[in-house]
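Example record

The entry below shows one chain as it appears in the dataset: sequence first, then structure tokens.
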Amino acid sequence: MRKPKRTTLSDVAEKAGVSRTAAAYILSKTRGGFAKETVERVTNAAREFGFRPNPIARSLQSVAAVFVVIGNPGYPDVHSVDVDNVWVGRLTTQHLIDFGHRRLAYIAPGDSYAYGNDRVEGFLLACKEASLPERDAIVIRDDDSMSGGYRAMQELLQVAPTVTGVCAVDDAMAYGAVKAINDAGLSVPNDISIVGCNNDFFMATDPDFLTTVNLNFVEPGSAATRKLFALIDHRDVSPRDLISDIHLICRKSSAPPKS
């Protein structure tokens, strides 16, 4: 007699419509920043399948262990190190504002991604500081991918055809947006300026094209290690450190709007 198939984490993730990694974080409660609806879908799927996390992993949660999270844990009492993603959103937006753009948009992943939410917050803050009307500061969400950026830009061109400047949460969504703009018979930056983030050379077909933000991906790991040793030594440290070693690289995809 064949044994019934054992439910896996992948089964739960597929049922909930999230990645395996996201399901693991939610069920183990080792990382926050997920939308309430996303958490409910994952926990309901786990309950439906009768899925239980690995008992060893569960036992580790009850140990008074010292650890540091890299990223936004979503909880104020968890020690963490993260890129200052609010500043990233402000920096890219301010770049377009300084060029003279006043009808702006931000394309971002779904609200279950804390880094995306932080960058959107920075975008909205920069628009507010520049006294831009709310109707001229639009946020469109889709998958964090080239195809997601393409769909987001298609939607944006439908709801706000007069937009002149777009910030994307990363270079993948930015390049998807560029393709949608070109397919609509428009051009970058003559009609719409685009700014990405991450300076992802794997995405670049022309290394001199996309205006983007260069992030120091080494420093968060180094800072987390320093914080961890400080905690082990029982030294006082701040709960959350934000890395601001961030700079914008201005290239061909951004320019002043057409007069």
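Notes for this example: The beta strands are 69-70, 80-83, 104-108, 137-141, 165-168, 193-195, 212-215, 240-243, 246-249. The first strand starts at residue 69 and ends at 70.
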